[in-house]
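Field log, afternoon session.

UNIT: design team B
ACTIVITY: writing a sequence onto a fixed backbone
BACKBONE:
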C-alpha cells in the first residue's frame, strides 16, 4: 500500500531515497523551476550532477515521481567537505521531514564512502530563506555539531542589477560520530 503524506515521517522516506541517474535530470530541473526560489540550471547541468556527481547527490522518488533532491560535491582542494549545492522538496512533500531525511542519508553515505573520516557540510543560504535555514539548523542540532555562518558570495557577483541576495555560507560539522550510531 502507498503511504499518504500524513503517514510520511523522516524514517519512512528511507526506501524512496537513492543516487540520482541520468533519467532524473529533467525532473530535477522541473522541481527547481516549480520551487520558485532556487536558480534554475540547464538540463545539461543536472545531467552532469546526476551522473558524475551521483555519489554526492541524492533523490527521493515515490510513486514514479521525483519528490526532492540534493546535489552536492567535494570541492577539489577540500575533499573532507560535502558542499550542498541545491536542496529542493516538492511542495506536496514539504514538512514531512524529507529534506532532513535526504541530508541524513547523504551524509551517512558520504561518510561510509570516505571510510568514516570526518566530513563538514557546507551550503550557501540566502538570509531570507527561513525554510532552508531551519533545515540546516535542525540538521546541526540533530547531530550535535556546530553551525557557523561566514560571508561567501556577495549579491553583486550574481546580479549587478541587485536582483539577488548575498549567499553567506553555513559550515556544519565536522561530523565525527561513529557511523554505527548515526
Ligand atoms: C528548504 C526545504 C528543502 C525544506 O524541506 P522539507 O522537507 O520541507 O524540510 P523538513 O520537513 O525536513 O524540515 C526541516 C526543518 O525545517 C523546518 N521547516 C520546514 N519548512 C519550513 C518553513 N517553510 N519555514 C520555517 N521552517 C521550516 C521544519 O520545521 C524542520 O525543523 P526541525 O528540524 O527543527 O524540526 C523546502 O522547504 C524547499 O524545497 N524549499 C524551496 C527550495 C529551497 O529553498 N531550497 C534550499 C535552498 S539552499
Amino acid at each position: 500500500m502507498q503511504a499518504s503524506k500524513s503517514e510520511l515521517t523522516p524514517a519512512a522516506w528511507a526506501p524512496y531515497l537513492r543516487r540520482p541517474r541520468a533519467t532524473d535530470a529533467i525532473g530535477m530541473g522541473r522541481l527547481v523551476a516549480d520551487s520558485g526560489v532556487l536558480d534554475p540550471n540547464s538540463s545539461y547541468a543536472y545531467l552532469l550532477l546526476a551522473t558524475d556527481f551521483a555519489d554526492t547527490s541524492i533523490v527521493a522518488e515515490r510513486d514514479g515521481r521525483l519528490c526532492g533532491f540534493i546535489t552536492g560535491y567535494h570541492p577539489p582542494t577540500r575533499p573532507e567537505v560535502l558542499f550542498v549545492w541545491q536542496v529542493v522538496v516538492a511542495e506536496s512533500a514539504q514538512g514531512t521531514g524529507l529534506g532532513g531525511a535526504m541530508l541524513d542519508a547523504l551524509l551517512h553515505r558520504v561518510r561510509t564512502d570516505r571510510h568514516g573520516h570526518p566530513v563538514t557540510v557546507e551550503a550557501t543560504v540566502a538570509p531570507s530563506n527561513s525554510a532552508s535555514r531551519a533545515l540546516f539548523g535542525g540538521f546541526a542540532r540533530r547531530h550535535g555539531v556546530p553551525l557557523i555562518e561566514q560571508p561567501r558570495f556577495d549579491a553583486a557577483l550574481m546580479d549587478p542589477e541587485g536582483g539577488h541576495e548575498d549567499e553567506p555560507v553555513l559550515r556544519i560539522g565536522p561530523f565525527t560520530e561513529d557511523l554505527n550510531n548515526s
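LOG NOTE: Residues 35, 37-38, 87-89, 94-100, 123, 125, 129-132, 134-135, 138 surround coenzyme A (CB under 6 Å).
NEXT ACTIVITY: expression trials, pending approval
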